[in-house]
Hints:
The chain is an alpha+beta fold. The chain has helices spanning 3-6, 59-66, 70-90, 145-156; strands spanning 16-20, 31-32, 39-40, 44-48, 51-57, 97-99, 103-108, 111-117, 123-128, 136-137. The chain has two domains: 3-89, no CATH class; 92-156. It contains four helices and ten strands, in the order H-E-E-E-E-E-H-H-E-E-E-E-E-H. The chain binds zinc ion. Zinc ion is lined by residues 33, 35-36, 38, 57-58, 60-61.
Amino acid sequence: xxxxxxxPRAPRIGWVCTAVGDMGRxxxxxxxxxxxxxxxxxxxxxxxPRFPGEVAVxxxxxxxxxxxxxxxxDQRDREAKNRxxxxxxxxxxxxxxxxxxxxxxxxxxxxEYRVVKGPYGGYAASIRREGEMAWTRLxxxxxxxxxxxxxxxxxxxxxxxxxxxAIEEVA
Length: 171
Ligand SMILES: [Zn+2]
């Protein structure tokens, strides 16, 4: 049943897309649009300052809830899909180069990535953006080298992320 049928008092407009998800290639993992029921691999997660929780919808329903032109939502959808595809391929890129026993580097689309293995077995990542002289060390250690590589990817290619400002209710 549609979200707006089960939540008749929910706001119809003024929603913000906080993130776009990827449920994977398998159709059994896809989720229905909370509004129209269309099965979605890439749900747009919508939040509203006057509604608790998130609503997962497709592009058409998102445009209506956000009150923005369809092409802007489609553009966000396309960018998210491209990013997910790049992220899936990132760890296996052929030009990752091992230097010595504990360092891996990659130059890709004019950005530089580096992963080092620490003395205790974890992996840490650094990035150097195009035009920067110094490397930026990313926080944290990862158990798997893939996760360190992906943290570097995410730092250079951040996902779509919007925040919802809480609106103070006027009594
Ligand atoms: Zn829908």
